[in-house]
Amino acid sequence: MSSNSSSPVVETGSVATPSGDPRGSITLRDVTQTYGSGADAVTAVGPVDLEVPAGEFLVLVGASGCGKSTLLRLIAGFEPATSGQVEVSGGVPVPGVTSGVVFQQPRLFPWRTVGGNVDLALRYARIPKAERATRRDELLHRVGLDDTADRRIWEISGGQQQRVAIARALAAETSLLLLDEPFAALDALTRERLQEDLRAVSTDSGRTNVFVTHSADEAAFLGTRIVVLSRRPGRVALDLTSPLPRTGATPDELRGSPEYAALRAEVSAAVKEAAAAER
Ligand code: ADP
Ligand code: MG
């Protein structure tokens, strides 16, 4: 991820996903998730059916509390679904193996350096010691953080911390990256910059992305596909394929285009309608 979005860094070591290759694909069949039991039972999600081919940039968008994070946790494999099937790359999801995850807060280790945080993820991914320094520098380069390996976490900005979190999630080179409102805590300008860099990197990588947000702007800018969830229990209320090009247009051209404006308006209206709909 280059900090200069007009010249995206070409990824090295990314996972190529030729068509028909299941790596990074997601299948949800009749998935529901219920917390608690008896009178206290809360169904957070479902039933949801969703087929996500490898390489797609799926944005899940919906009002707060509609079950977006729950759905992402199921895809990550952090918890099993109450009913239905969740498959990633054709099998059972395993955290850190079938996907990398980026949360709203960077959740870095403050007593480690920037490089130390990425290093730990590489160790966790069982990258041999001899390769780690090179891989660490590659990852930091990819997220636009050259020459920061020795910096302390508290010395860098919130936007840079979130870049470290993305580098860490990329360490295992999983074919699926899950992002749960990763830019929500950042100021508007930093958020736009990170959106631009993530869009460029994902286009180059062939990796599948699932990005959760409540922002119609963010959804319209980032997604190749946008799924609007209804209010709890979250179900698919709208499933759209973006008409915006992935390459050949600058971020400003994209954001200024009538296609972007129409898409954003459609998503925004669907989110509001889904949130208000009677059950
Ligand atoms: P979103 O990410 O869209 O804001 P969540 O997936 O976090 O929504 O939550 C959806 C609903 O499920 C909420 O009503 C929330 O309170 C409930 N919920 C989520 N996780 C749990 C849990 N571990 N135990 C009980 N209820 C939960
Ligand atoms: Mg959430």
Automatic annotation (TrEMBL):
This is ABC transporter ATP-binding protein. The keyword Ribonucleoprotein does not apply. InterPro entries: AAA+_ATPase, ABC_transporter-like_ATP-bd, ABC_transporter-like_CS, ABC_transporter_ATP-bind, P-loop_NTPase. Residues 26-256 form the ABC transporter domain. SMART domains: AAA. Signal peptide: none annotated. Pfam families: ABC_tran (PF00005). It comes from the Bacteria. Residues 1-17 have a biased composition (Polar residues). Keywords: ATP-binding, Nucleotide-binding, Transport. CDD domains: ABC_NrtD_SsuB_transporters. One of its GO terms (molecular function) is ATP binding. It comes from Gordonia westfalica.
